[in-house]
Design brief:
The chain is α+β, with helices and mostly antiparallel strands. The chain is about 45% helix and about 20% strand.
Length: about 600
């Protein structure tokens, strides 16, 4: 909270009535390659450090200074002696470039806008009071960008998506002509194109369930944590910093015997929160439970559910950060008594770290806003994702034993807990997606870790899709049809790619122009959809993701076929990972004990 002085009148500015805690910062790499947080101040205002150019028609000359805080309605700047000629109420022409990461995506560009001069009293960290100059924009940045940049982007991307869809249809007509030459390949191309287009069509028809002002059910947030010392306090802050009735929201942190400083940092966060303000009843709403022994993520979640006092339980990953209205939006579909689970949207928190994280930004958004939204159109979301999902507590309790003891080909199922529980829910209830229930998560920024995560997800997808295939036919007809098509397409994809890129050129001497054009159109559709919704400069990384998928990720699928019984995570020390590593070490020791000892 800061004070603003304008025309001898002091007013108190709040970013939100419910804002209690510091918002979660954006993660980036510094010049030395270390991951750091940007100093984002509040939900609706952001600290910044860029140059602005000012010109007042009465003074004539241009002036420059540094911007230190930016919101969608005003700009706080450092005072410079050259600005002495400006008085409260003067209208100034402003020009500045918003660097990426300063605000949400879509705002990174050069701005030319007018602002009215005022003065603001700011309390510094050392309690010293100083005055800063404020420029209040004549129109909000949202209004400015809708009138300029965003208007062009919306028109361009919408026209491009329609044109791409038209070309894809033309190419599939060509597949009908050549169907007699290779029925399998061209039939695959037909169903793949149909599947892709329908995902975007149904995703376009999706609508977020609106907020009912009279619906605020009690919710218990469960955070399972293991070795998350760096970000766990921010996860807790995000869960408590919600625009939701205090007496209807509790947070339960379950530590699965972390071996780092996770538990110590949890208690530090609790102490800090208790000092904020007693009115928020932190002690009553926040529980911390340390498991007596390492039991895995599922056991941590089940233990948390057992402690929950409300009928709706929300699972939040320990490296996920909730927006203030996430819970309010997430619970709305539960007004339907047949709704069993709801997934929120997950964005990438550390989006600007490197190319690996940037391509995941586009992939995550399309996976949720298009793919899950399309499934939600039929009330049949097939994966209620781990970063943020809500369930009826009674359904978790009904399936907890099967979930905890789930095995596949005799091996315990340790990962894929979100898909697994979704399958249990789907057998009797509906599932949905809420696009405005937003959280962000820290994604891998190293290629090796990213590949291990993708392999784990493919194994989980394959296992649980085979399970879902045994009952999904009882759901809505179109949803069931698209589910089975969506199961076949990625499994057959490696064969199709080899046929088009190797077999046809080698044996027929034909360059695979049509196939490569199809890949380009698929990549363009993903990138254009992202640009349409987010207005972000990161849209080009949709092309990067498709190229990486075809060159690398696609070939993980055959490996997943023959190893989907494995239970190791590959990115954390679960009991199964430790056991597998010990077995591998034992084999090496038997083979060459001297080398291992040395």
């Amino acid at each position: 909270m800061v004070k603003e002085k304008s025309n001898a009148k002091t007013v108190i500015r709040h970013t939100s009535e419910s804002t209690l805690l510091p918002n979660v910062p954006i993660l980036q790499r510094d010049d030395e390659g270390k991951m750091v947080e940007t100093n984002r101040l509040l939900k609706n205002s952001y600290s910044c450090n860029f140059t602005i150019t000012m010109k007042n028609k009465n003074v004539g000359k241009k002036m420059k200074t540094k911007a230190i805080e930016l919101s969608k309605t005003d700009l706080l700047v450092d005072f410079d002696p050259s600005m002495n000629s400006l008085k409260a109420g003067d209208v100034v022409n402003l020009r500045f470039k918003i660097p990426r990461g300063t605000m949400e995506e879509g705002y990174e560009s050069t701005v030319r806008i007018r602002g009215t001069v005022s003065w603001q009293e700011v309390k510094m960290p050392n309690d010293e009071i100083t005055w800063k100059m404020v420029f209040t924009f004549v129109e909000s940045l949202d209004s400015y960008f809708r009138r300029t940049k965003w208007k062009f982007i919306t028109t361009f991307t919408l026209a491009s998506l329609l044109l791409v869809a038209f070309f894809i249809v033309l190419m599939r007509i060509e597949s009908l002509v050549y169907f007699k030459f290779n029925k399998f390949i061209y039939f695959y191309s037909l169903i793949a194109a149909t599947f892709l287009l329908t995902r975007y069509i149904f995703g376009a028809f999706y609508r977020n369930v609106p907020i009912n002002s009279n619906y605020r059910p009690g919710v218990s947030i469960i955070i399972p944590v293991f070795n998350e010392e760096e970000w766990i306090h921010k996860t807790i802050y995000g869960c408590l910093n919600q625009n939701y009735p205090i007496d209807k929201l509790e947070v339960i942190v379950v530590d699965d015997q972390s071996t780092d400083l996770t538990v110590e940092n949890i208690w530090k966060a609790v102490e800090r929160l208790e000092q904020e303000d007693e009115v928020y009843k932190i002690k009553e709403r926040l529980q911390v439970y340390v498991m007596p022994q390492n039991g895995g993520k599922r056991k941590a979640l089940v233990d948390g559910v057992a402690m929950a006092k409300h009928d709706l339980v929300i699972f939040v990953d320990s490296d996920s950060f909730l927006e203030p209205n996430a819970i309010l939006n997430l619970v709305q579909p539960f007004q339907d008594p047949k709704m069993g689970g709801v997934a929120g949207r997950t964005d990438v928190e550390n989006k600007y770290v490197n190319s690996i994280t940037k391509l995941q930004v586009v992939r995550y958004y399309i996976a949720f806003r298009v793919m899950k939204a399309a499934e939600s159109y039929f009330d049949c979301v097939t994966c209620l994702s781990g970063p943020l999902s809500c369930y009826r507590k009674s359904l978790i309790l009904d399936h907890q034993e099967d979930w905890l003891n789930q095995t596949f080909l005799g091996q315990p199922a340790t990962f894929g807990d979100d898909r697994s529980m979704t399958n249990y829910i789907l057998q009797t209830h509906r599932t949905a997606y809420q696009d405005r229930a937003i959280c962000s998560t820290v994604v891998p920024d190293k290629f090796g870790v990213f590949l291990k995560q993708q392999m784990r997800w493919k194994r989980s997808w394959l296992r649980e899709s085979l399970r879902a295939g045994t009952f999904i036919w009882r759901k809505e007809v179109f949803m069931a049809l698209f589910f089975y098509v969506g199961l076949i397409v990625p499994i057959a994809a490696p064969v199709v790619v080899l046929y088009n890129l190797l077999y046809v050129p080698l044996f027929y001497g034909i360059f695979p122009t049509t196939f490569l054009l199809g890949l380009f159109l698929m990549a363009f559709m993903m990138s254009a959809a992202y640009l349409f919704f987010k207005k972000s400069s990161l849209w080009v990384f949709g092309f990067v993701f498709v190229l990486m998928y075809e060159a690398v990720l696609l070939w993980q699928m055959p490996i997943a076929w023959v190893t989907f019984w494995k239970s190791t995570w590959g990115t954390r020390d679960t009991p199964q990972d430790i056991e597998a590593r010990d077995k591998k070490l034992g084999k090496k020791l038997k083979k060459d004990p001297l080398t291992i000892k040395s």
